[in-house]
Every structure is written in C-alpha cells, then in structure tokens.
Specification:
By secondary structure, the chain is of the alpha/beta class. It folds into two domains: about 375 residues, Alkaline Phosphatase, subunit A (3-Layer(aba) Sandwich); about 160 residues, no CATH class. It is about 25% helix and about 15% strand. It has 15 helices and 16 strands. The strands form three sheets. The chain has a ten-stranded mixed sheet, sandwiched between helices. Strands 11-12-13-14 form a four-stranded antiparallel sheet, covered by helices on one side. Strands 15-16 form a two-stranded antiparallel sheet. Helix 2 crosses helix 8 and helix 7 packs parallel to helix 8. It is globular and about 65 Å long.
C-alpha cells in the first residue's frame, strides 16, 4: 500500500474520531500577499480571530509564483507541469487554457459537491475569465458564485461581476474588496441556512496592484483581457478612504537583501542596477498602500467570523487564510512584483482554525499549495489517487500518529519577469520586462538546514543556505569560496549538489506519489526519505553520475522538448526503481549511460 494512502487513512481516522459530521469550510485567499514585509502583522482582526484561535504553518510555500497557475495548483492538488497551466493568459494559461485542459470539469469544487457539500465562491477565480467569455462555458462546481471578471478584475473602483452565470454587472464607484466582502457575507448566510455542509471561498483582489481597464469609446464587449493604453498600469493598489490615515510611517524592512550594494541572484536579477532614492520612496508608499488595501479584508474576516458565531456554527467550521503567491518590493534591487523563486515570492502565509486545531500554535512541517486540495478533501471525508501532494495534518493530537512528511517543495516557473509600479511597467505598456525567467527549483527545510537550489533555462544555477543567509544574497555558484568549507551532515557542498540535482530531476516531471516521496525513485526500498539520509557516503558513486536538470532553450510555457529528454529520464527512472538501488561500495554498479550528458538535459 502506498505511503500516501497510509497517510490519508491515518488522517481520515483521526478526522472521524474528532469530527462527528462533515465540517463546514470557509476559505479566504488574498492576492499577492507577502509573508516578509509585515502584511500579516498589520492585520489585527486576522490575528484576533484566526491566528490566535488557530495554527500558523511557518513553512508554507506556493510552487509557482504567479496567480493563475498557483490557483490551479491549489484547486487541483497537481503541480503546474501536470496541469499545464503556467501563465495568466493564453496560450499557456488563463480561463481558456483551464477549459481546454479539462480543469473546469475536474477540480476541487466539483469534487466537494460530489462529497455532499454546498459550494460558493466570490471574488477572483481565474485570469482571462472575462466579460466576454464568462459563459463559454460557465464555471462549474458552485451552487452560488459571483466572479470578478477581466479586464476589470484589478480595477479597485470599476469592478464587473457575474452572479450565478448572469450577465456582468457594473460596480463602478464601489470599492471592490468591500463589494466582495458583502457578497461573501450573503453567500455565507445562505450556506449556513442550508441543509448541507458548506465550502465557501472568498477571494478579494487586495493587495494586488491596481490595473485600470481603460475602456475604449466603442461597445463594452470590444474590451480586451487587458485593454492597452498608458493608463493600464500595474499601479499602486487602491484603498478605501477610511484607511487612508494608516501606516504613514511604515517602511519596508531594511534587510540585507533590500536594495543591496552588490547585485545578487542570477539571470536578469543579477544585472539589475540599484534603486535610487525616488524609487525606494515610491516602493515604501507602494507597500503602505498594499497594507491599507488589506484592512478591508481584515474587517471582512471579523464580519464573517462573527456571522459564524452568531449562527452557532463557528465551532463546526474550519477557516483557512492564505494567498496565491508572495511579493517583492526592493529586495534584490527589484521593482515591485513576483514570479521569482526566492522566499519573498514563494514563502507565504497559511493559518487555519477549526475543531481540533490548536489555538495560537505554530507548526514547522513543510507544506505547499499542492497539499491544499488533498487537505480539503480529507476534511470532507473523501480522497483521490491523482494528487501530487498530501493532506496536511491539522488536528492537535495528530502529531502522535503523523506519518513523516517530506522536507521538500518543488518550485517552477516559465516565462518572463514583469516588474510593477510606475518605474517597472510591464510590456506591452512601454516599460520593462525580463526574459528568460524560466527555472526549476527546490526548497528544502530539514531539522538542520534550510536550502534553496535552482537551475535556470540560461544554464545558471543558485544555491543558498537560508540559515546563514535568510535574504538569499550569497549564491555559492557565484562565489566558490562560500563552498570551500561548507558541509551538511559532514558532507561537502559538491556531494550535496549531486543529491539536489538528482532530486530535482525527479521532481521536475513527478506525478502522484513520486512528488510526495521523490527519494523512492532513487532508493526503491524506501530507506531514504531525507537529504541527510541521501548524503550517506555509500551512495556517492551513484549520485555523482546521475543525470542533471537542464534546458535546451528558454520558453514562455511548458514545452517538454525544451526541458530535457523526458523519455530517457523516465526509462532510467523505471530502471532505478525496479532494477537498481543506489549502490554500496560492495554492491551493484551505478546506472551507466554511454551517450552524451547533453542528451539528458
């Protein structure tokens, strides 16, 4: 029996004991909320109602740092390389791509309905879900819905929304996060009055950058997904006038990676010039506005929690709070934005309260958005066999029976870097964009290490030890002196990199349980589950000769042919799993490939 199934069975058994019936679920997801510039700390009602009453997951990550692919990953439990949704708009992403890939028929809300839940959603669902294609086809899986629609999704004062598949309605003059809050309150009230357990998702746009739709003079239906024109910028987020007085003295934390004197990173990041004082002042105000926009979300949280309490269902309801991806602003000399693999962009908030969950607690287990759908399905008493993640242990007493979780997160991205704000407006608006922002990466958090390793489509690589270097400023590949005396578990940096290369080879195309237990692809008997165990010297010969990750070209989407010979790696993986254990000095010989290493990458 697979370990992932055992894990689910143990988790489901605990749920059955702790929960007399299927619990209700309220899921709140913000847009581009950072985990390192104080955004959570500046939400006192979130703290009062969810953080202080629930558990914070300190090592939670998104796997792709851009909204639409990250949300698909969250709502399917599958890695982006398996959903094949890797961008915010066609041809590689957005609602048309989601429909084409069959996701509209086969994702979490559809499954939750099959499990007996009434499902509701309001706010932003998908990018490129527009006033023109909102019914081509209608979004499936919801008993009640009210979706923000492009090109008005990020226009804080001119929202257009479609309720239950009806024609879009204009909310110009009303503040979008407040509109979503009102709709969330109504849906939650309706859900509480129903006979079935409910799954209600609320997705305001705060604190995303403001994008004005800039409609042309012609009919409304002539609008593009993002209407061109100089006014359509990734500008400072808008906030409700009642919050304008807040955070006037706030400044982005001046950490080591804040506009550093020496460039850092790789690829285009390593070429960035320092920000000048005008840009830094602007970025500080940019983040102040982001914090102000989140105050509407904070107030909404209190309204929704109070409603659950007034109706007597709070103790039967799990409340999730997270975001789709993180955000950077001035770190590594970058203009505001996301799309990078650094912790600024992938290390994000996750807080959960509910029956059986410890109040005011933290957990340091490694979790990712790939685990969210399995977790929510587990709460519903259901499961599937095609998840690339595993259910997160939630209950306070689950620690005693918890099956060991992995210490890894698979991170990936395809396309370009899009700087935001007036000093970094993305194409096609006459500003900057950074090509070759395609990479595969690993984030590992173990008992004695916290590591990041990436391979870019340009051939460049990065390695950071975040215990020593939390700002990810000192790339070992750029400064060999850093690696000279570096060891983990008594092993050299080079031996460590051999293992990380082999792990990334598996994860970059993994599917199902292979994503959860990737070391099993190298050690078929399950004897190795952590990096430390893989560093055993008896495996050196095997890992030294293992294929490496590489790219033949930098593409804007997931093009299999550009990411190495998948067929050969797949066959080799089968041979490693079925006929070749990583050898001991006295044991079998390692797998021998007699072609060119370029054939593997």
């Amino acid at each position: 029996m697979k370990t992932s199934l055992l894990n689910w069975l143990a988790w489901a058994a605990l749920c059955t004991c702790a929960l007399a019936k299927q619990p209700n679920i309220l899921f709140i997801i913000t847009d581009d909320q950072d985990g390192h510039m104080g955004s959570v700390e500046h939400m006192p009602l979130l703290k009062k109602h969810i953080i202080d009453q629930g558990t914070s997951y300190e090592n939670h990550f998104c796997t792709i740092a851009i909204c639409c692919p990250s949300r698909v990953n969250l709502w399917t439990g599958r890695a982006a390389h398996n959903t094949n949704v890797t961008d915010v708009g066609p041809p590689y992403g957005g609602y048309p791509k989601i429909v084409k890939e069959g996701i509209n028929d086969d994702y979490l809300p559809v499954w939750m309905q099959s499990a007996g839940y009434s499902t509701y959603y309001t706010g932003k669902l998908w990018n490129a879900h527009t006033i023109n294609n909102y019914n081509q086809p209608f979004v499936k899986g919801y008993n009640g819905s009210d979706f923000l629609l492009d090109p008005f999704t990020y226009d804080y004062w001119h929202a257009r929304m479609s309720r239950n598949g009806e024609a879009p309605r204009d909310y110009s003059g009303q503040y979008s996060p407040d509109v979503v809050a009102d709709k969330a309150y109504g849906f939650l009230e309706e859900a509480i009055e129903g006979d079935a357990p409910f799954f209600v998702t609320v997705a305001p746009i705060a604190p995303h950058s403001n994008i004005v739709a800039n409609p042309p003079s012609g009919p409304l239906n002539e609008l593009e997904v993002l209407a061109p024109g100089p006014v359509n910028k990734f500008a400072i987020p808008e906030y409700a006038p009642r919050h304008a007085h807040l955070f006037k003295d706030y400044k982005i934390p001046r950490t080591e990676n804040f506009n550093p004197e020496q460039a850092s990173g790789a690829s285009w990041v390593a070429q960035l010039p320092r920000l000048n004082d005008t840009m830094i002042d602007y970025n500080d105000e940019f983040q102040r506005a982001r914090l102000r926009s989140l105050q509407s979300v904070d107030e909404m949280i209190e309204r929704l929690i109070n409603l659950l309490e007034e109706k007597g269902v709070l103790e039967d309801t799990f409340v999730f709070f997270t975001t789709d991806n993180g955000f950077h602003a001035s770190q590594h000399r970058m203009h505001p934005g996301k799309e990078c693999g650094y912790d600024t962009d992938i290390h994000i908030p996750l807080v959960i309260r509910g029956p059986g969950i410890a109040a005011g607690a933290t957990k340091n287990i490694v979790t990712s958005h790939t685990d969210m759908a399995p977790t929510l399905m587990s709460l519903a008493g259901a499961s599937r066999d095609d998840f690339d993640g595993s259910a997160i242990p939630l209950l306070e007493d689950h620690e005693s029976t918890e099956v060991s979780r992995g210490e890894h997160v698979n991170v990936e991205f395809w396309g370009i870097g899009l700087p935001e704000g007036k000093f970094g407006i993305a194409e096609p608006f006459g500003g900057l964009s950074y090509p070759n922002n395609t990479y595969k990466a690993l984030r590992l958090v173990g008992h004695n290490y916290s590591l990041y390793y990436s391979v870019w489509c340009t051939g460049e690589r990065e390695f950071y030890d975040l215990h020593r270097d939390p700002g990810q400023m000192h790339n070992f590949f750029a400064d060999p002196q850093l690696a000279k005396d570096y060891t983990i578990a008594g092993r050299s940096w080079q031996q460590l990199i051999y293992r990380l290369d082999a792990l990334l080879v598996v994860l970059k195309t993994c599917k199902g349980n292979t994503c959860v237990k990737p070391w099993n692809s190298h050690h078929k008997n399950g004897s190795v589950e952590t990096l430390t165990e893989a560093l055993n010297p008896r495996f050196d010969n095997y890992y030294m000769k293992h294929p490496k990750v590489g790219f033949s070209s930098c593409e804007l989407g997931y093009i299999k042919e550009a990411e190495g010979n998948r067929e050969r790696i797949s066959h080799a993986g089968v041979q490693w799993q079925t006929g070749l254990e990583a050898p001991t000095p006295e044991g079998q010989q390692p797998f021998q490939y007699r072609g060119s290493w370029s054939d593997w990458v």
